[in-house]
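Researcher: Let's run the pair from yesterday's discussion. Sequence first, then tokens, for each.
Model: Starting with the first of the pair.
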Amino acid sequence: MAAFGVLYAVLAGRLVHLGLAANGDDMRTAGAASAVAAARPDIVDENGEILATDIKTASLYAEPRRIVDADEAAEQLSLVFPDFDRERLRRDLATNAGFLWLKREITPDQRRRVHELGLPGIGFVSENRRFYPGGPTVSHILGAVNVDNQGIAGIEKYIDDSGLADLHQAGFATEHGLEPVKLSIDLRVQHAVRSELETAMGKYTAKAAIGIVLDVKTGEVVGMSSLPDFDPNIPAQALDKDRLNRATVGVYEMGSTFKTFTTAMALDSGLVHLNDTFDASKPLRISGFTIHDFHGKHRALSVPEIFIYSSNIGTAKMALECGIPMQQEFLGKLGLLDELRTELPEAGAPLKPREWTKLSSVTISFGHGISVSPLQTAAAGAALMNGGYYIPPTFLPRDERTAAELSRRVVKPETSADMRKLMRLNVLKGSGRRAAVPGYRVGGKTGTAEKVVNGKYAHDKRRNAFLSAFPIDDPRYLVLVVIDEPNPEKPGLPATAGMNAAPTTAAIIRRIAPMLGIKPLLTDPEEDLATTIAAIE
């Protein structure tokens, strides 16, 4: 009995010693456990295509107290890693430290070469490294992770904030049992949007471009791209200020696309009807400023004419008819006065006037004096297309029943129907003619906004947009395209939204409509125009 007692006492003492060693000196075991805990779930698109996944990689570490010759180790390692500071490395290896990271995420060839050196006290830890098969294709949505595989932006950060970080801390999140995170993004649509934006930037030598495809019935973001973007496999690229996510972080004056909201407000109020007319024969003077039309007709215009000719004067008079309190309430209902919150942590707060004067009301009516994000604009536009319900946008799958529970009515069904007719008329007869796609009934509104430079509007720098929906009879998808500082495609041509944002939208719809199961229809444009005009009248 005494012998057995001694034996078990020795075993217990050894277990205690090993436990302490694991917490202190035996960093190989601790490091490996930490690497397993840093595993992340795959991110997939709505069709199950992998957008982000973990791959195994090796990281190099040293246990200086076990190194026999620090000078030789530093010299040999510097041959494999020329970027190492040899003198600093020698000093670090000459200490009595228990553990020291030398380099994270080394290549298989570097691991082989270090292994062949056979240096005591030098080892490897297997870690998880995030890999994005599509490179920059979905970069601003996915975000990025740091060297410890922790989400620091985009959906990756959303995943951590939703509980993964707590699981890591508790040691429960391993490679096994992590369900993939499914997004509402369709990779095919995403690729098409990004491709067409790249083409547009080259064709119009533009500074930047944004494209959003939104399901108007569920609020799901099906595709969203902001160029220039970055490769999340090279996270340092995301630090470039020109590569920010302009779709959600950037806030801009959206120009005449805001006339869509002003027109909807006026019609929904009952103070204005489709067959009403407003005098646009001369500029509007207000608070010492003069409001002009870009291509004035210099006559009275009906509401449809104000819309398709994009009359600033007519739109301003409709806003004045409604008044400032109604305008503020209406834009608030559309989510245009508050920061838009989605799964992406990156969001820009709208810029609105400190004092909402009559002049502010007039300029805001046609998209100046207020700055919002493109995604906010898209969500507000979708509410006018889907029958009148504002549905918060999401990057996660959502069915129509859930969307209905989250929605709120912002305009009457009749107002939504009228806006669809006006949008269609604008593509058939107005400034959006270049957005027409054979076989698909597209409706939309152009927006050309001069940019503010040194506190003044610059006539030669524009941010153009086209807000559209299809099929316009019963819209399923909204497409918003924004092109920053485009130049004319050919000398002598204007650089307005109708000349660049509209045709870019058409190119996107032409590619994505078949992917999304929208069947083309054989229609006669002249007959379609006559039918649309008759419906409005």
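Model: Moving on to the second of the pair.
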Amino acid sequence: MTQASAPTPRSIARKYFLAFFAAVVVPLFANGIVEAWFGYRDQRAQLNELLGVEARAAASRIQSFIDGIRDQLGWMVQLPWTAGSDDRQRLDALRLLRQVPAVMTLTVVDGTGKERLRVSRVGLNQIGSGVDRSAEAAVLGARAARVWYGPVTFYRGSEPFMTIAVAGNRASVGIAIAEINLKLIWDVISAIRVGQTGQAFVLDDPGRLIAHPDISLVLRGGDEAVARPLSTLRDVIRAAGDKSAIGKDASGSAVIAAMAPIPGVDWTVIVSQPLVEAFGPIYGALWRTGALLLLGMAFAGALAFWLARRMTGPIRLLEYGTEQIGAGHLDHRIEIASADELGRLAARFNAMAGELALSQERQERIARLKRFLAPQVAELVDRTGDDGVLEARRVEVAVIFGDLRGFTAFSAKTPPDDVMQVLAEYFTALGRVITTHGATLTSFTGDGLMVLVNAPVSCPDPGLTAVRLAIGMQDAVQPLVAEWRAKGYAIGFGVGAAMETATVGRIGYEDRCDYTAIGPVVNLAARLCSAAEDRQILIDAVLFQNARDCAEITPLGARQLKGLASGVPVFAILR
């Protein structure tokens, strides 16, 4: 089964850096976006208003230009045509051509539709030609609506012209028909400026260019290559609900434009401004915001780096301190001068290290005490901090020795590992009993051991306790003896105990000491143990006197024990 790889450790400095950096940069970036959006919206509203006003103003001026021509034509048909009025009409027509330079040709038709007068700037003047014009569109349109505007045409494929027909108040008065050179609208269009480079132009209903500041575009006579992008721009504005819209001009440049209609002639005035200029304030604000954002990012980066280093420096010290403590250097301390949470954490860490040092010292002291004291006695000495009970003193003490019978022969013919296994089981069983009775195990001697009762901590009835402990030791070892013999090990266990006043206390040197007892009672207990057979517990007369009422004891008489000058009364505890 494939194990998942451990996650790659990440530096806390990097996390803090990113957090601090984002805390400064994100608000700046959000503020820049919000400012740009509101700036764009406000600028767009201003452009809508400005371009719309300019477009309507241009449409009004062009409308006034056309209305002026219409009114002048209206004066030509105020009176009916009569005999002898030809000269008067001719003079009025010439006067109109002088007053209205846009009129190229003026034709007057009487009430029957016959041509009575024709004056022109580019052709011959005619009076009384009598040509029937009653079926022409200009005559029919003027009779139907009094004022008729003809479609735009391009004279010789370049100059835009339009025909205007005005009928008199009465049908007998006749109709004045004028051909207008629309090139003169250039004066109106070229005067319109929006900003530095904004301009206006005029399209007729089919989308042909009628007027433009660049007269060369107009003189190209409705070239589709010129008119198509402008007509497309008009469609975009219409799709936007006649508000300003963004599109392309004749040169393909992006512009924002608005339009206004010219009633009657079905023309459209479009006022446009290049986007670069129209949104120049926005672009400038964006550049300023970008510069501020870069400065803010630089400041945020420096601040985040400084704060991250300021925070992670103490953390690294804490990490290093933890490693030192883990390595056992409990005297290591962390020096953080700040009075904030990190400083308090360092102080607590140092306090913890001190407590660990004290705890380790205590554990070592307890471990040393447990070498020759019962665990509860060692804990008591450590808790009270008084080891005076270990000092040398004279006290009545019960001494118990235990020893395996036949161990020497067993160990001589048994593998060492098996011998060590037997001893481990043997001492483990005895250790539990000794601890239970609160006795003190002073030493191990091969397969034997020495136990003290009533030292260093006194007990209410040491004699009775010693007898019970001796019985408990036999009861704990005999099941093991049965198992060993089942394996073919000829081993037994004997116990000897005696009680008398002896000197007890620590013995040894500075780095190593034991707690033991010195006196004849120790030798007597050892000799009794040597004389005891398997399953036997031999005690002296003092223990017999202390425990004869609580255990079945039989006297064995006086025995001569090795190392003792006279016979010693020996007693056996029956189990």
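Researcher: Give me one sentence on the second I can quote.
Model: Confidence is low (pLDDT under 50) at residues 1-9.
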